[in-house]
């Protein structure tokens, strides 16, 4: 059986603009990053399955309510639809080990850099990790991608992640300053 190639993509910082390097906590603040549509269309044209895998702990840390979490997720789905973004699947981890809400304080296997979201989606979509990419804006994305055997791409135009990469003793396969650079990488 032929295995598929995927782009495992972080949501905030890649697809969605961050606010002060953090995920938006209000759906009115949720905006698509520059270059996202063309990047996703290129990966799709090249035969990749586009999968969002994203840590979303704000509900666990009581930064947002359940209603606000649902509103943010609904807004994201509307942005995908309204912008005709070719995203095939979405996986979120709402857990955090310092969660104030006990419902979300579990020792999960999905919070990046743990590999649960890669494994669940990989099984569903029959993914060949060696021919796939992980694209994120944090060291945890890169660490998880390495654990799964994907090629890794770090979008870090302001070098915010340098100290975390050193701390975790990891380096991305590629480091980019804009999403326009992805096309060159995935055509290699």
Explain how this protein is built.
The chain is α/β, with parallel strands linked by helices. It has a single domain (5-186), classed as 3-Layer(aba) Sandwich (Rossmann fold), CATH 3.40.50. 31% of the residues lie in helices and 16% in strands. It has a six-stranded parallel sheet, sandwiched between helices. The radius of gyration is 16 Å and the shape is globular. The relative contact order is 0.18. The model has no long low-confidence stretch (mean pLDDT 94).
Helix content: 25-40%
Cross-sheet strand order for the largest sheet? 3-2-1-4-5-6
Total number of strands: 6
* Run of helices and strands: EHEHEHEHEHEH
Mean pLDDT: 94
Would you tell me the structural class of the helices and strands? alpha/beta
- CATH architectural label: 3-Layer(aba) Sandwich
Question: Given the structure, what is the number of helices?
Answer: 6
Shape: globular
Number of domains: 1
- Could you give me the name of the CATH homologous superfamily? HAD superfamily/HAD-like
Keywords:
globular; about 15% strand; about 30% helix; six-stranded parallel sheet; 6 strands; alpha/beta
In short:
The protein has 188 residues and is an alpha/beta fold. The protein is 31% helix and 16% strand.
